[in-house]
Amino acid sequence: xxxxxxxxxxxxxxxxxxxxxxxxxxxxxxxxxxxxxxxxxxxxxxxxxxxxxxxxxxxxxxxxxxxxxxxxxxxxxxxxxxxxxxxxxxxxxxxxxxxxxxxxxxxxxxxxxxxxxxxxxxxxxxxxxxxxxxxxxxxxxxxxxxxxxxxxxxxxxxxxxxxxxxxxxxxxxxxxxxxxxxxxxxxxxxxxxxxxxxxxxxxxxxxxxxxxxxxxxxxxxxxxxxxxxxxxxxxxxxxxxxxxxxxxxxxxxxxxxxxxxxxxxxxxxxxxxxxxxxxxxxxxxxxxxxxxxxxxxxxxxxxx
Length: 304
Known about the structure:
Layout lengths: L1 E6 L5 H10 L1 E7 L3 E3 L4 E3 L2 H8 L4 E3 L6 H10 L3 E5 L7 H4 L6 E5 L11 H7 L4 E8 L9 E8 L6 H21 L31 H10 L6 E5 L2 E12 L9 E4 L3 E4 L4 E8 L5 E3 H6 L9 E2 L1
Parallel strand pairs: 1-2, 1-6, 2-5, 6-7
Antiparallel strand pairs: 3-4, 7-8, 8-9, 10-11, 10-16, 11-14, 12-13, 13-14, 14-15
């Protein structure tokens, strides 16, 4: 099958790999290079790097809906478009440019967690189950008819990284299955919907007055990117490595109760065990290393 692929983040790569093996990719469209790192050097997307390395025709488009891009797509006349973690809104004129339409891999069981950050919001909510949905894009926000979906159990110790990896693999399999049989009947979404809007910086700060379970969920949701935040001795630090809960722990919210390889930190109810910390402009280190370097000690208090 002749496929147009739109993607940017590394969540897209496993799907791209599957399509390359089994179908003809006429063109990959991705976001243009952007400044990254301390030196703000232009950096291509992971999808752009993959495409160049595999000799796949590539277009880095600032506006995928522009007349120029649309004309190129129509010249290619692809049968179907697959979209994974692309990052631009697709207008109706673009959605009508392929025979079968545009199909998107979304990291939730739609209509739950419509929006830009479904994995983070699922972890923040402490869900025990989520999944992946392949759906046909319409003019709404993740509202199109569903082609395929698959449920996934969420482990209590899953982080953004582990769930991201698992869901990206499942998404690639759904795309393979659908491209092998594109006559699969589409079904409308049903059930209660919810939003998973973009995460803003202030949402990453830990509120130690909350129960330990909520604090643990926040650590998991932003591990390892971009990292849950808190203040310690006037510095903004990041926290990683959720190790579990201690519901019998008592102390002032944010207080380090013990340091035994990991930190046990008191919350509004119970305590949370965390493995690693990152101080400003430093690498991520274990709490034991931070203790040895006199950066933290028992009785230290994180600000809420």
